User: Fold this.
Amino acid sequence: MTSEALRKARDFEAQYGPHIPAQERPAFHATPTIGWMNDPNGFSFYQGECHLFYQYHPYSNEWGPMYWGHLKTADFLRWDRLPAALAPDQEYDAFGCFSGGAVELPDGRQLLMYTGVQRQHNQEGFLQDIQTQCAAIGDGVDYEKCPLNPVLDGTSLPAGGSAVDFRDPKVWREGDVFYAAIGNRTEDDSGAVLLYQSPDCLHWEFVRTLDRSYNQYGKMWECPDFFPLDGRQVLITSPQDMEPQGLEYHAGNGTLCLIGRYEPEGEGFVRERAQAIDYGLDFYAPQTLEAPDGRRIMIAWMQNWATVRSKPHHCRWFGQMTLPRELSVRNGRLCQLPVRELESRRGAAVVRRSLLVNGETSLPGVQGRTVDLTVTVRPMAGSSYRWFRLHVAKGGRYDTIIRYRPGEDTVKIDRTRGGLPFDIVHTRTFLVRPRDGEIKLRVILDRFSVELFVNDGEQAASTVIYTPQEADAITFEAGGQVLVDVEKYDLLFDEEKEG
Ligand code: FRU
Assistant:
């Protein structure tokens, strides 16, 4: 039965969502039907179709009691809107239906597993959350919350685990067994990922702690995911309250990828390497799926809690997802590239080899705000350069700059003039590894965002921008002399289908 709260939200989004003109949204990135979006939830295939749910507050462009919004996609680029899937309409989720996952049940129904949050006064009179895991079962459009809810509560935690910070179940199936990886806060006040198993997705038992922060990688570990990839085992999570470490991790809400091996009958998950997932300004809470063709595809919220105050005035949608990215492990690192479906959206190419850049220059036909651009930079025999800058979304007082410094092996992304008039961080710098002196920068522009992939996805960096679409120049600039290969495509989308 659809609750009053869900019915109202569905009426509201159906009435007001279609008034937002397609041109005011990205052409191919997922946005909320109306109002606020944060984490991706339930990114999964169900009956052969790809579903994406999201943390949703339809009634304003601010975070509020959490609903689950709902989208479907046939190509990871165009998003069909479905009615909101969950509303905070029960005692155990009155403060919100927080993040979670989705899985197809053996009987053909779809189960959503999410964190139900209640906010209560504790013994000292302070407001405190109680977080439990809940289930809702449905047909891909309408879902019933299970009478057994909550299906997992604080009584199922290992010693020292916190029932205040116990959230974001990512659920999957292996044969007859369902598994859930869930974020938790431990007795040392930092984070952990817990693994549970169940025969039916309703009755759960604790298996083991997969890994812990021990205060090394931030505090609470939010939105975990755990999957095999290219012969390795990968644990990703989004830690809160990180302290900076070199150029790898910045302060605040960050992302962490742990790569190792998994011995289910033995030691469990054995971590071998750690890295950040995205080195840009706006990226959090990634979640993955395994596509029917075997690809491991990741999508994330293209925002960060520290940057959400910065939004266009009176915007009727706020928050967007990254481009879905194909993952691989190469040379011990998590690599990511835009889904290959993007290539079928490419228009005519503008290609230029060995362009000599000395000062700032542009190329005929190379501009735009929905663009797939690859720039390979290499030194010229007999001369040197101190830096190379790629300017995008440039015009008037606007400019977003990607700068490479060969002497330091760093790339900096700078959206100081990216149309966000708030006193927040606007630049990030990270380490890259040139190959034979060359560096390859692939940039995907989609109206309100810039996503950068360095050296075939060894590093990724994402940032939102809110500049007028007329600011569409792209230029190349060098401090010294350098040779540049350019390959540029417009990305073509049929606006009629958007909205
Ligand atoms: C991460 C997060 C999750 C939580 C959700 C609430 O961005 O804080 O841990 O479930 O957002 O909207």
